[in-house]
Amino acid sequence: MHSTLPNPARVGSTYTILATGGASGAPVIVTASPGTVCASGGANGATITPVGQGPCTVTASQAGSANYSAATAVMQSFTVVYPPLYLTLSVSSSPAGRVTTGSVVTVMGTLSNHTTAAETVTLKATFSYVNQSGQHVTISATSRAFRLAAGQTLGQPFSFTISKHVPRGSYTVALTATDTAGDTTSGSASLTVS
């Protein structure tokens, strides 16, 4: 295994393992465990995604062939932690179903402060699209600041009403959170206005 994973690694990141095998010609297969902390995916499992907090072990192995024995498995262990500021995002519309004129789109940002100190967090929501000229056009943007205690998780909803002036097409709804220490996290989702 030619890759050194960061220790600690952060939930929400992805890392690519580089590994070469021996003369058997079989592919190097990468696995990660436990599944509650990290997962392997992509070609031959070489993409590692931390999904929960705790210790993770990545194992690279290669099967043998008629002429060669299996290679000795190589393991690398590391710790997975949450980033200081963690954001998840969900989007819904009312009425449910197709998003059209009069629909209210609600973006729920759930923030978690994984530090030992209270933080003032600014959360910004934008609703935008790329026009036919390739320009990024923001339909609506709003932000708010609030206090997030150490270890606290808090949901913050933002709502946008689709007016008759909103062109039909694909949109991006994005949230960006920044705390007083300068830590930033963001998330986005796509939706179609018809």
Overview of the structural elements:
The chain has 194 residues and is an all-beta fold. It has two domains: 9-81, Immunoglobulin-like (Sandwich), CATH 2.60.40.10; 85-193, Immunoglobulin-like (Sandwich), CATH 2.60.40. The protein contains no helices and 14 strands. It has strands at residues 9-10, 15-16, 28-33, 38-41, 47-50, 54-62, 74-81, 85-94, 104-113, 119-130, 136-148, 153-161, 169-179, 184-193. The strands form four sheets. A four-stranded mixed sheet has the order 1-7-6-3, with no helix packed on it. The N and C termini lie far apart (49 Å). The model has no long low-confidence stretch (mean pLDDT 89).
In short:
The chain is an all-beta fold. The chain has strands spanning 9-10, 15-16, 28-33, 38-41, 47-50, 54-62, 74-81, 85-94, 104-113, 119-130, 136-148, 153-161, 169-179, 184-193.
Strand order in space, largest sheet:
1-7-6-3
Proportion of residues in β-strands: over 45%
Helix content: under 10%
User: Largest sheet, if any?
Assistant: 4 strands, mixed
Total domain modules = 2
Q: Give the CATH architecture of the largest domain.
A: Sandwich
Cα separation of the termini = 49 Å
Radius of gyration, CA atoms, in whole angstroms = 22 Å
Name the overall outline.
Answer: extended
Task: Report the mean per-residue pLDDT as an integer.
Answer: 89
CATH topology of the largest domain, what is it called?
A: Immunoglobulin-like
**H/E series, N to C?**
EEEEEEEEEEEEEE
* Number of contiguous helices: 0
Q: What is the CATH top level name of the largest domain? A: Mainly Beta
Q: Which stretches are low in confidence, meaning pLDDT under 50 for 5 or more residues running?
A: none
Query: Quick one: how many beta strands?
Result: 14
Category from helices, strands and their pairing? mainly beta
